[in-house]
Every structure is written in structure tokens, then in C-alpha cells.
Amino acid sequence: YTLLSGVLLSMLLGALFHYIHLNYHSIEREIIRGMRHNEFFVEYQPVIDSQNNKIIGVEALLRWQHPTEGRIPPDIFINYAESHGLIVSLTQYLLRIVAIDAHSLAYNMPKGLKLSINISPYHLTTQSFRDDVRHFISSLPQPNFLNIVFEITERGMIDNEQAMSDFMWLRQQGIEVAIDDFGTGYSALIYLEKFTVDYLKIDRGFVMSIDQNTLTTPVLDTVLRLTDQLKLKTVAEGVETASQAEYLRQHGVAFLQGFLYSRALGLDALIDFTYKFNRQIVSANV
Ligand code: C2E
Ligand code: MG
Ligand code: MG
Ligand code: MG
């Protein structure tokens, strides 16, 4: 396992240096500079209710437009920020943008919109986490027509008292919790019984295993039986084809997200797209 994560880390760092031809220390400076110059922004990817084919949620995704390097993928800079103590500032930055956008989302998107935000497990264990969340909640529009969901990867489900109390506390604040990228982490399934979570996001890898010719995908089917027994609502990510969507719908997946419907969009484009999509003026781009 240590070897594997070492290999993965060096692959990521290799990719990182491909994107930023600077030395190690200046990447840290670049992120800080980028935040000061507002080079980071947020896009929202629609989430569709599989039963009525309407947009009922969005996932906020951070973007970085670097002045000389162009778009830097979040997988790269988030990972770097996590390992260099910058993820808290970056998340605070994102929460500030989302809180501003929330006013427009609350009035221009369907009522009760689920607004999902990715929270790093590293942030969860810091001193500032609860203050950051309180500050975010207090800056949301009132009355609040939004349902906030925090997406946390499996490695955030570490079996400790602190994480458990953080989860209980989040739910007391009215925030729902989703396990992100389910099936790619440690998958110590015991946490599913110990932590109270609301949604499980099935990783894109499982969705990719569904194709037109395959009638069964045993691992995915097992995961879906499990979530059914645990009464967990599921979200499938990375839905790219109509046949994948159909399979997931027939197997009880409540929410669908992927390029079949839409990529992540800027705020105005999202509102426009949602208006048309929910009136069936546009359908999935098949
Ligand atoms: P994630 O949370 O699993 O987000 C979903 C990723 O899958 C997004 O990539 C999205 O654009 C991509 N995706 C969605 N539908 C499809 C599809 O149909 N096909 C394919 N091939 N991809 C699809 P993105 O935006 O590049 O983000 C990658 C990861 O970076 C996210 O994975 C998340 O772990 C992290 N990330 C992004 N923004 C934030 C953030 O604000 N905070 C934190 N902590 N992490 C973030
Ligand atoms: Mg996510
Ligand atoms: Mg995900
Ligand atoms: Mg993912």
C-alpha cells in the first residue's frame, strides 16, 4: 500500500511539473498568488433525478485559470494543496464564492436545490473546520432554499472519534453528507455502519463498466444491493451514455451526473441550461 501510494504520488507530482515548470516552492507561491489574483473560480455540474429526469442538484467544482500555464486540473492542484497545508485556504476561498453564488442559485434554480461541495478530509480534522462551516452557513441567503451536501471521500471516513463527532455535528447544522468516489478508497465497509451518511456517490469507474453489450456488472450490482439494504441514496458519477443512465435508473440509482447531461458550467450558463432542461427544451446530449 505504501509503495502504491508512493508511485501514485510521484505520478501526480510528475503531472504537476508538467503543468507548472517551476520549482517545488514556487507552486505553493503560485497557488497563493492565484488566490490573490482571483484566478480560481467555481463551475457547477448539474445532478439529475433519475425518476423524473429533472435537474435537482449541482456539484461545485473548483477551477484554476493560470495566466501562463492555462487551465490546471483540480486533481493536480487540490492534491498539491492538500499535501502542502493550502487546502483550508483554498476551501475557504471556494466557500466565499459559493456563498455569493448561492443568492443567485436560491432564486433561479429549483427550490430545494442540492448544492454539493467537496470537502477535503484534511480540512475535516483542522481547528478551523467548524468555524469555516458556521461562517459559510451564516452567509447563505435567508430563507434558504438550498440543501447543502458535503462530499467527502472514503479516506475521510477514518475510524476515529473526531471524524464521527464532526459528522454528527454537520448533520445538526442541517448539512447532508455524501461519500464521494465510493469504491476507490480503502473501502473498509465497516464505516457504513458507524457513520451516518445520506448519500453514496458511485465512482465513475463502476459506471464505465456498464456498456451496451454487458448485461451484468457484478461489482456494481453488489454495491447497489448493499446501498439498498443500508437505505442509502445513491448518486452515479461519470454517466456518459444513455444506456448507462437507463441501467442505473432501472437498478434504483436515485441521482445521475455526467457528461451525458452536462459538464460543469459557469453560474449564468447553469441557470440557463437548467431552465431549458427542466422544461425539456433540451434533453441529454445523445
Ligand atoms: P469529484 O468530486 O469526483 O468530481 C467529479 C469529477 O468528475 C469532476 O472532475 C467532473 O468534471 C468529472 N466528471 C463529471 N462527469 C463526468 C463524465 O461524464 N465523464 C468524465 N470523464 N468525467 C466526468 P474535475 O472537475 O476535474 O474534478 C476532479 C476532482 O477534483 C473532483 O472529483 C474532486 O475530488 C476534486 N475537486 C474539484 N473541486 C474541488 C474542491 O472545490 N474541493 C476539493 N476538496 N476537491 C475538489
Ligand atoms: Mg465530488
Ligand atoms: Mg466524485
Ligand atoms: Mg471522482
From TrEMBL:
Full protein name: cyclic-guanylate-specific phosphodiesterase
Location within or outside the cell: Cell membrane
Chief place where the protein resides: membrane
Range of residues in the leader sequence: none
Source domain of life: Bacteria
Domain EAL: 24-278
Catalytic activity: 3',3'-c-di-GMP + H2O = 5'-phosphoguanylyl(3'->5')guanosine + H(+)
Molecular function GO labels: cyclic-guanylate-specific phosphodiesterase activity
Covered range of the whole protein: 243 to 528 of 528
Organism: Rouxiella aceris
